[in-house]
Each structure stands twice: as C-alpha cells, then as structure tokens.
Amino acid sequence: MNSVAIKSLNTFRMNVFAKRIVVALTEEDLLKAWRQATILDNQPILILGGGSNVLFLENYMGTILLNRIRGITIKESKDAWYLYIHSGEIWNRLVNFSINQNMPGLENLAFIPGYVGTAPIQNIGAYGVEFCQFCEYVDILQLDNGKKYRLNKFECCFDYRESIFKHSYRNNYAIIAVNLRIDKIWKPIIHYNGLTHFNVNRVTPRQILNRIFLLRKRKIPNPLFQGNAGSFFKNPIVDAKTAKILKNKYKNIPIFSVKNNQFRLSAGWLIEKCQLKGYKMGNAEVYNKQALILVNNGKATGTELILLAKYIRDKVSEKFSIWLEPEVRFIASQGEIDPSKIL
Ligand code: FAD
Ligand code: EPU
C-alpha cells in the first residue's frame, strides 16, 4: 500500500503517493536507504532534490530519497574562488550566499528551483549562462558498492540541457558534491533580452539578480500557486539548412546561433504560433504568459499532462516539421521512463 503523499515534494503538485520517504543527511544515509529499498524490500528508489524537473505519472511504488547533504567549503587562489558544495544545498541559496560573500558570477542563474546536486544533470541554464561555465568537477557515489568517483568538467560531457548524468551515471549513482570555480574578475553577462539596457561598466551583480527576479516573475508561474516544472520541452537545435528555410518562411522567428553551425529555436515561439498559448486540455494548461510551460490547474493527472504534451508536439510537428523533446523527466510507478514510451 502507498501511504505517503508526495504532492508537496514535486513542483508540478501531482497528487500522488509513495511507499516511503527517507531524508539523507549523510552519504551513509544514502547507502543505507538504497540497501533497505533495493535489497531488503525489493523496491525501486528515487533520489529527489526539489522535485522541480519531474512529472509523476502515477503513484510511486517505492522509496523517495530526499538528498539533504549540506555544507560549503571555500578555497581561494590569486584568480578565483573555489566552492566545494554538497549536493543537498539549495541552488538559489548558494547563488545568494556567493553574492553576499562578494563572489559574483552566478547571478544569472538565480531563482532556478532545485538543489545543487541536480544542477549538473541538465546543466541548468538561464539568461545566457550555464552551470558548466563554473563547474570544475562533480563527485558521485555508486550506491550499490559505496565507491566514489570524481568526474572533471570534460568527463561530465556538458551541453545544452545535457550531461553524462542523464546517461551512463543515471541509475544507482548519487551526485554528492560539485566544485565550482568563480573567477575573481567579474564580467557581467547582459546580452540576454531584458538585460541589455544595463551599462556594462556600472551594473552590479545585485542589479542583475533583481532584474532577473522581475523577468522570471513575469514569465514563470510560481509552483506554489500553479503547479509546473519550468520549461516542459527543450528548445530545439537545428542545422543551418533548416534554420535558413524557417527564417525565409517566418521572418520574425527567433533563431540563435550556437556552436558548430547549429541554431537554437524557441520552442515557446513555435507553440505560440500554433495558437496554443493558454490552451487547456482537461486540467492541464499551456501557461498563458509563456507557452513553453505547462501548468497543473490544481487537479491535473499525469495522463492529462501527457495528452496535452502530445497534442502540442503533434501541432508543432505538423506546422514546422520540428519534433519537440521533453526537458522534464517522467516518473512512473517503478521509476523513470523513457519519454519515447509515452509521448
Ligand atoms: P529533481 O526534480 O528533484 O530531480 C531531477 C532528476 O534528477 C530526477 O531524475 C532525480 O532522480 C535526479 N536527481 C536529483 N538529485 C540527484 C542526486 N543528488 N544525484 C543523482 N540524481 C539526482 N531549469 C533551468 O535549467 N533553468 C531555468 O531557468 C529553470 N527554471 C525553472 C523554473 C521553475 C518554476 C521550475 C519549476 C523549474 C525550473 N527549471 C529550470 C528546472 C529545474 O529547476 C532544474 O532542472 C533543477 O536543476 C531541478 O532540480 P531539483 O533538485 O528540483 O531536481
Ligand atoms: N517566446 C514566444 N512565446 C512564448 C515563449 C517564448 O514567442 O510563449 C519567444 C520569445 O521570442 C522570447 C524567446 O522565445 O524572447 C525566449 O523566451 P524566454 O526568454 O522566456 O526563454 P525560453 O527559451 O522559453 C529558456 C529556458 C528557461 C530559462 C529561460 C531564460 C529552456 C528549455 N528553457 O526558456 O529555463 O529560464 O530560457 O534564460 O532552455 C527551464 O529549463 O525550466 C527554464 C525555465
């Protein structure tokens, strides 16, 4: 029988249950919980930070392991600060802490929900900055034998919303800490829409952070009032030929050049152009101020959100021949499932 409500542990506010919740304050707690669930109880186990990038499709038939291992150690060289941060620290608290300590750099990544240990998994990014620009290495713990590994930033294979932690180190591994390097020469990143009015010589980290608060407030619903997991899909990456065809056909289409002759489209724009902004399907909705965000109006089920996501994907595909890939991770009764199985 499932007995523990996990509605408050996921920002989509899915009204689902798990068999057990365990809070890990140490690495030993992680190992103990893993042993108890998998070996003794023969049940699945899922590590969660803030539950802000998952969609629970149904009740979870196992243990939810809340990683809350805390601690920050700071070292300093002539050129940089090095922060060794345990994975159970809250990401946005870290951003504020670093700025309060006069170590600016992370301000564009402010207000992203979730925990430090999850930041490398999808290489969190916002307002022209990505986690990987600061990461020196990530420490992981193999849960079935207690062995620890350190992956340097190259081994992490970071890319846009990508890393090795979505692939090889997905099951049976916990991220236990990250090491960030913050350069002592602060360079404000203000090229993103909404930040360009700042004067590069006068702007302060706090001004950027405050501005980002306002930008995010305008476009992203607060999960406390409207369940959501941020962007539901990734922004599609296309080759130069596709980008050119789209640009010729749709003069106003936002297209951003990324590396290696690749171009990033705005999934939100594509969805809006399919007239789906504010579109409702049952209790699931496309957010009316940002079409890339799907919201739970309070009573949505996983099935309703998936049906809406499918509908969006089909419409975008019909109109633009672009196939949207989900950013959110789907969790079924026995654990994470491959999006291609349900979308
Ligand atoms: P969770 O949802 O708890 O977990 C995500 C996945 O990681 C799960 O598969 C889980 O099993 C696994 N996991 C968690 N912790 C560990 C660990 N220690 N070791 C191994 N595996 C683990 N993202 C951005 O990049 N940019 C944004 O601007 C942004 N804005 C957002 C705004 C809102 C309102 C919301 C709700 C989400 C937003 N996101 C954004 C997405 C989300 O905040 C990030 O993906 C975040 O890093 C998820 O952290 P979490 O701790 O909540 O992860
Ligand atoms: N747009 C529309 N209509 C919409 C939404 C967007 O036309 O409804 C167009 C606009 O032209 C806008 C552009 O898309 O200028 C970009 O929109 P926005 O700045 O809101 O960013 P995004 O590309 O939709 C990405 C991240 C966000 C991150 C913001 C800010 C992804 C999948 N999402 O969204 O991350 O906060 O940029 O940097 O890359 C998340 O990952 O959960 C997330 C919220």
Question: Which helices and strands, and how do they pair?
Answer:
Elements (H helix, E strand, L loop, with lengths): L3 E2 L11 E8 L2 H14 L4 E4 L5 E3 L3 E8 L4 E5 L3 E7 L4 H10 L24 E2 L2 E2 L4 E8 L5 E5 L20 E11 L21 H15 L17 E3 H10 L5 E3 L4 E4 L1 H7 L6 E2 L2 E3 L7 E3 L5 H19 L8 E4 L2 E3 L6
Parallel strand pairs: 2-5, 3-5, 4-19
Antiparallel strand pairs: 1-2, 6-7, 7-12, 8-9, 10-11, 10-12, 13-15, 14-15, 16-17, 17-18, 19-20
Strand content: 25-35%
Which H/E pattern describes the elements? Answer: EEHEEEEEHEEEEEHEHEEHEEEHEE
| CATH structural fold name of the largest domain | Uridine Diphospho-n-acetylenolpyruvylglucosamine Reductase, domain 3
Low-confidence stretches: none
Structural class: alpha+beta
How would the global form be characterised? globular
Main pleated sheet: 5 strands, antiparallel
Q: Kindly report how far apart the N and C termini lie.
A: 28 Å
Radius of gyration: 20 Å
Whole-number tally of structural domains: 3
List the total number of helices.
Answer: 6
Average pLDDT rating: 97
Tell me which CATH architecture of the largest domain applies here.
2-Layer Sandwich
Which range best describes the helical content: under 10%, 10-25%, 25-40%, 40-55%, 55-70% or over 70%? 10-25%
User: Any ligands, ions or cofactors bound here, and which?
Assistant: flavin-adenine dinucleotide, uridine-diphosphate-2(N-acetylglucosaminyl) butyric acid
CATH class of the largest domain: Alpha Beta
Strand order of the largest sheet: 6-7-12-10-11
